[in-house]
Amino acid sequence: KRTLSEMHPLEQNPRVTKVWRTERGGTINAGDAVIFGHPDGSRQYGEAVAISLGVTIFSLADSGSKASATTEAFGVVWLLVYIVFDSFTSQWQSRVYKDHPSVDQFQMMFAVNAWSIILTMAGLIVSGEMWTSLAFISENPEALLDNVTIAITSATGQLFIYYTIRKFGPVVFTIIMTTRQIFSMALSAISFGHSM
Fold it and tell me: Which residues fall within 8 angstroms of residue 166, CB to CB, at 6 or more apart?
């Protein structure tokens, strides 16, 4: 059985990490053009796709074994799905803030988290993992404290995210998050000896 760190491509594969870092900025700009209807939206979207494909092909060209190539390709597909939704989310939130100036970061956070709870609960119930999770928490009550701590720090982080998007826009937010993740990866490599 694979561990979570084995399934996380950003920690395990520097080639997939390079693909992710390159694609994120381009798709944010393309999302901006498509959602806000800027006249050069098709060109920006095309450029983002071309750069993403080029980096992906170049990065995965020398992947070694067939199983490794399949795993890397699967990781890239999921990263692409993440990037598309990531670029859409911040752009859409920016549009909501512009179209409805009375909406603040607390209202945005409530709406996003309400839908997240509904979708997550539905997924857990349908997959049958809801009962497994509740059983785990009842057998390991110390895990509940960890979950509450993560929830509090996550909520605090979300407030900063929504404030940044509202005040400075999604492109500045993307730059901040990419910089944070670079520092996080460097700190992880230094602290835990992970390869870069």
Answer: 93, 94, 97, 104, 105, 108
